[in-house]
Design brief:
This protein is α/β, with parallel strands linked by helices. The protein has 15 helices and 21 strands.
């Protein structure tokens, strides 16, 4: 039996990790959720990877969730006649909608829908913030800028506009085509990129099946400002530190990360911390000490999951990166650093479980759940013991792979209290290392099979007589 780790691991698949052999190694090493990045790769490649994930899930007996990450409305400039230009500080540079090749004076910005939202004084960040332009004039078809920070600018580099809510749809036509195959690849989560407001999430829901969770990627200042309303309509969020660190001052990102984690817990929604967590392991067997501290910090702050991007998708050591992340999370948890003591906002149910841990020396909580909400609720209270979720719903089984401290199992439906206690005892003794007499807290809803009716908390000593 593998050591129980509360913090979940999300790993991105790519050229370095799309073989059946490597996906199996990553799953065994500790991956709980596999991310399919639809900014890259053909549909057929993603279908094949999803099929492999489901095959391996059955082989190793471990729930594995699939997250499809949509590209979103990425804004890019056009191309230059010579492939690149050099922009000097103080120079004038024009962005327009002309189709000609760009040069040192101008380049196309083929996104007419955003021109009207850009005002004099607005700053544009190009190439992940390496180039900074300030708008001096905008007549609706041509934007005149001054170069604030210059440098070499290449074809089709991305444009970030930090201080504007842009009139663009949350899902592009490409995204809609991608999300249409969610059922084909049996996706459990769909990650929405460049969310600006809660309305973006509501719009995305029109295209996403109701049994698939929507994860809002927080990478825009407007999303940070509107996080409470976004959390109300999302099923989870991601602290996407890449673009977030471009659009906001880099020194502000750690504080924003902590705030977003706290907000997510208050709303009882899972939260993933992502981007450059073990970046050096793309080309090196071991991480830097700073990266280890970064992962440990996310764990200690209460993140439900931490994510690998290029480290597992295109790096040289994807399996080592997963093992490293698992070891750091386990050590941080073992050192007692990962449990926030702010329990002012936990539910009556979560508080009851915590009291059972403290007063009754309960070692496991077993929760019977149709939708997963009760398991997430209890997890949110961070009881410090495994939350064993038993569900008859395969989608719920997979989605709980993203939730801190929850280990989910697929079971049949319940018909009696006796069956409930027997099932709870059987799952715990078969799947966890238990010695001597231990107590478990059993959480369920009566009548059985009625979603949203959690109303029973029963303390049971494993090995004790079961009364009918």
């Amino acid at each position: 039996m593998e050591q129980f780790r509360r913090t979940k691991i999300v790993a991105t698949l790519g050229p370095a990790s799309s073989s059946e052999e490597m996906i199996r190694k990553l799953a065994i090493a500790g991956v709980d959720v596999f991310r399919l990045n639809f900014s890259h790769g053909a549909h057929e490649t993603h279908r094949q990877n999803a099929s492999i994930i489901r095959k391996i899930e059955k082989e190793i007996g471990k729930p594995l969730a699939i997250m499809m990450d949509l590209q979103g409305p990425k804004i890019r400039i056009g191309v230059f006649e010579d492939g690149s230009i050099l922009l000097k500080q103080g120079a004038k540079f024009i962005l327009d909608m002309e189709k000609e090749f760009g040069n040192s004076k101008r380049v196309a910005l083929p996104h007419p829908e955003i021109f009207e939202a850009l005002r004099e004084g607005t700053e544009l960040l190009l190439d992940d913030g390496k180039i900074r332009l300030r708008i001096e004039d905008n007549d609706g078809s041509k934007i005149i800028t001054e170069v604030v920070d210059g440098g070499v600018l290449l074809n089709k580099k991305g444009v970030n506009i930090p201080n504007a809510v842009l009139p663009i749809a949350a899902l592009t036509e490409k995204d809609k085509g991608d999300v249409a195959i969610a059922n084909e690849i049996d996706a459990d989560w769909v990650a929405i990129s460049f969310v600006q407001t809660a309305e973006d999430v509501r719009y995305a829901r029109k295209f996403v099946s109701s049994d698939v969770g929507i994860l809002a990627k927080i990478e825009k200042p407007s999303a940070v400002d509107g996080i409470d309303s976004i959390l109300e309509v999302s099923d989870a969020i991601m602290v996407a530190r890449g673009d977030l660190g471009v659009e906001m001052p880099y020194e502000a990102v750690p504080g924003i990360q902590k705030m977003l984690i706290n907000k997510a817990r208050r709303h009882k929604k899972p939260v993933v911390v992502a981007t450059q967590m073990l970046e050096s392991m793309i080309s090196c067997h071991v991480p830097t000490r700073a990266e280890v501290s970064d992962v440990a910090c996310a764990v200690a702050e209460g993140a439900d999951a931490v994510m690998l991007s290029a480290e597992s998708a295109s790096g040289n050591f994807p399996e080592d990166a997963v093992k490293t992340m698992a070891k750091v999370a386990l050590k941080t948890e073992a050192d007692g650093l990962s449990f926030s003591q702010d329990f002012t906002n936990i539910s009556t149910l979560a508080e009851g479980v915590r009291n059972a841990v403290i007063n009754d020396n309960v070692k496991f909580v077993v929760v019977f759940t149709e939708t997963g909400r009760s398991a997430i609720d209890i997890s949110n209270g961070r009881p410090g013991i495994p939350v064993v979720a038993l569900t008859p719903n395969t989608k719920t089984l997979h989605k709980l792979s993203l939730v801190n401290g929850v280990k989910a199992f697929l079971v049949g439906e319940l018909f009696s209290v006796t069956q409930m206690v027997e099932m709870a005892q059987d799952v715990v003794t078969r799947n966890f290392s238990t010695k001597g007499s231990i107590k478990v807290a059993i959480v369920a809803g009566i009548p059985f099979r009625a979603s949203g009716s959690t109303n029973l908390l029963h303390i049971h000593a494993i090995g004790a007589h079961i009364n009918s």
